[in-house]
Design goal:
The structure holds two protein chains of two kinds.
Chain A (H helix, E strand, L loop, with lengths): L1 H6 L5 H41 L3 H6 L2 H6 L10 H9 L2 H32 L5 H11 L5 H14 L5 H24 L4 H9 L4 H12 L1 H17 L2 H6 L7 H11 L4 H21 L1 H11 L4
Helix pairs in contact in A: 2-15, 5-15, 6-9, 6-12, 6-14, 7-9, 9-12, 12-16, 14-15
Chain B lengths: L1 H6 L8 H27 L5 H28 L3 H34 L13 H8 L1 H32 L4 H12 L6 H11 L12 H8 L13 H27 L3 H9 L4 H12 L1 H17 L2 H6 L9 H11 L3 H30 L1
The chains are: A mainly alpha, B mainly alpha.
């Protein structure tokens, strides 16, 4: 803003302002139409899912979901039976429960490990710490697929396959490079004076970590937690390989429903919405941290 | 050791035997707790809520108990020794997890890719030869190339255009519009696939079309189309789902970059008579090209690994398979570990340039 006021004396002010305004207005119409079209394409599919999940099986099969919106007052089409059915008869409630049991520790464990490691690399002196960090950054890029077969063979040999612990540790291993990288960036930028004065007061490394470093890193921890939580919650591949489908989680259960009942849209729409509830709540309540986590999660250029 | 003992005040814990016993006891107790929890959970017949409680206590508490007991053991030896071993104690769990879950399996997968389906016999390049000559595999490679080319390009370009346009609206409008476009980021790939299966849904002619795409198509007087079976265009419909999912990501990151373009640069371009389009290409794009490249590579990297969309939509039928899904099918459905490994290695080789760039960037910024 201040820049434009500084510039004004150099050119005829009124002319420039008027011209830009009218040009912006002309350019604005196609631009607005474009944005509107994008917003419609980006929301309609999800809206269709949400609306259909509350319509009866017959209504879904006979008319498109948009008819449901047009004839909103036709209450005979609305129902919550789809949710009841998919939650209990189709085991989605159980899957939801298992997803929580997998996701929460799979988020806490890597963050804890990464925070300790990042603290040691950033603030403790030991040979090889630089190289260790470079290796961790390199590992950010290794595709998950490179790890699946050997780890599965070990898991099967020792009966770890299909266990919660196996899932927690797998997600921990796969999430650690990003977690360490993000937390290191934050922890290493804590002012040296804070840690030095704590050390001078006789604080042990453990005390400095738990009482200073962790509380000061809350924003970075929050961002990564959300990122990792959503990643694990939405994951299908790791769950299919290491957890199997004997005990369902939301993603494997939904994928199975698509396979076995691909045309039962009353079940699929309600099921899909149940898998989306938790991420959507996080998205709307913690969007700031969510975005920050996304940004940090992008490959560093 | 003697130096340590001089520094410490003499206590019962000073005696080496007592120290050793205390250290071992603490470690054994921690491991017993974690192992006990593991077997309890694996063979769980206990009530659900109890299982859940144990799972959370073991999962969340276990990791802290582990670090706490390591630290306690380290502190038994007095400050000087403690400060020497504590860094290793703090990095050890992370190093162990990275070693077991990424480094070792990565190396193992490379060697498995030269072995037969059971991973027993060395068969040279046979798996790779199959991948690069088999007809179905060539379709898989072509599709993967299409995914990697189209999804990142379109998602980034769209994200950039949206970012520039919404930047002109008021802050509240901008925020709302961005939320709509960003929303799919929160949805799982499986959930998104169900959403789009519903959009592409097909019913035979004469029956009511409940999928949006066929409803529009038939309203225009055409016969309904089973979209997901039309080769090779069905690939584009699947790729579009990825664009739908990733545009929000590109938009959010590029939006931050667009806001960082200096106003006076844009004003100068306007005074020089450049229109909106020209100042976009001549000022905005060059100014933020680093960020554009980052967004592009991030999406390329993601697209390479993602198999969920094709898995749910078509299971790779109708000529839509991609490397990531075929790798899953070869390794875990057909149980051909050799071929699955070779496909994983191909995914890895494609991203090696990124790895080199990252490490170089690290080296530079580290000095």
């Amino acid at each position: 803003m201040s820049d434009t006021t500084v510039k004004k004396p150099y050119v005829k002010p009124s002319a420039v302002a008027g011209e830009t305004k009218s040009r912006a207005l002309i350019a604005g119409i196609p631009a607005r139409a474009f944005i509107l079209a994008i917003v419609v394409i980006w929301t309609i599919p999800t809206l269709g899912l949400l609306v259909s999940s509350f319509r009866t099986q017959i209504a879904i099969a006979e008319t498109g979901w948009w008819h449901g919106l047009i004839n909103f007052t036709d209450f005979s089409q609305w129902t919550i039976a789809n949710y009841e059915r998919v939650l209990f008869a189709d085991d989605m409630a159980n899957a939801f429960f298992n997803s929580l049991l997998i996701t929460i520790p799979s988020t806490v464990i890597p963050i804890t490990m990464a925070a300790f490691a990042a603290y040691a690399i950033a603030w403790m002196i030991f040979p090889g710490r630089k190289i260790l960090f470079v290796i961790i950054v390199g590992l950010l890029i290794v595709p998950l697929q490179m790890a699946l077969i050997p780890v599965l063979r070990v898991y099967t040999r020792h009966g770890i396959n299909g266990t919660y612990l196996g899932m927690w540790l797998a997600h921990t291993g796969f999430g650690l490079p990003l977690a360490t990288y993000m937390l290191y960036g934050y922890i290493s930028s804590i002012p040296k004076s804070i840690l030095e004065s704590a050390h001078a007061d006789g604080a042990t490394p453990w005390m400095m970590f738990t009482r200073l470093v962790l509380p000061l890193s809350i924003p970075a921890i929050a961002s990564f937690s959300i990122f990792q939580f959503l990643w694990v919650w939405n994951d299908l591949l790791v769950a299919l390989v290491f957890f199997g489908t004997r005990r369902p989680i939301v993603t494997t259960r939904l994928a199975e429903l698509v396979g076995s009942r691909g045309q039962s849209w009353h079940v699929l729409t309600a099921g899909a919405f149940i898998t989306m509830v938790v991420p959507l709540i996080i998205f709307f309540s913690l969007q700031r941290y969510f975005v920050r986590g996304m940004m940090a999660g992008s490959v560093k250029g | 050791m003697s130096e340590v003992q001089q520094l410490q005040e003499p206590t019962a814990l000073e005696k080496p035997a007592v120290k050793a016993v205390a250290a071992v006891t603490i470690l054994v107790a921690t491991f017993a707790l974690i192992a006990g929890g593991f077997f309890f959970l694996r063979d769980a017949t206990a009530p659900r809520l109890l299982t859940a409680l144990v799972a959370l206590v073991i999962g969340v508490g276990g990791i802290w108990a582990l670090f706490f007991s390591f630290n306690t053991v380290a502190e038994l030896f007095g400050p000087a020794v403690r400060d020497k071993i504590l860094p290793y104690v703090f990095v050890a769990p992370a190093v162990a997890a990275l070693g077991f879950y990424i480094v070792w399996p990565g190396i193992n997968t490379i060697s498995l890719s030269f072995m037969d389906r059971f991973g027993n016999e060395f068969i040279g390049l046979e798996n790779y030869q199959f991948i690069f000559t088999n007809e179905a595999m060539l379709v898989v490679l072509r599709n993967t190339f299409l995914w990697v080319l189209l999804a990142p390009t379109f998602a980034t370009a769209l994200g950039l255009v949206i970012a520039v346009i919404v930047d002109r609206f008021g802050p509240l409008t901008e925020k709302v519009l961005k939320s709509f476009i960003f929303l799919p980021m929160a949805i799982s790939f499986v959930g998104a696939s169900v959403i789009w299966r519903f959009v592409y849904a097909f019913q035979p002619e004469g029956m009511p079309q409940i999928g949006v795409l066929n409803a529009i198509h038939t309203a225009l007087g055409n016969a309904p189309v089973a979209w997901l079976t039309i080769r090779p265009w069905n690939n584009l419909l699947l790729i579009f789902i990825m664009i739908w999912l990733q545009t929000g990501f590109a938009m959010v990151i590029l939006s931050a970059a667009v806001k960082g373009v200096p106003k006076d640069l844009l004003d100068a371009a306007r005074i020089d008579g450049a229109g909106e389009v020209r100042s976009f290409f001549n000022v905005t794009v060059p100014y933020i090209q680093g960020t554009i490249l980052t967004v592009l590579t991030t999406i390329v990297f993601l697209v390479l690994k993602i198999f969920d969309v094709v898995y749910v939509m078509t299971s790779g039928q109708f000529g839509t398979n991609i490397i990531a899904l075929r790798m899953y099918q070869e390794a875990f459905v057909q149980r051909n570990f050799g071929r699955g490994s070779a496909l994983a290695v191909i995914l890895f080789v494609v991203v090696i340039p990124l790895l080199i760039r990252n490490v170089r960037g690290m080296r530079k910024s580290g000095d």
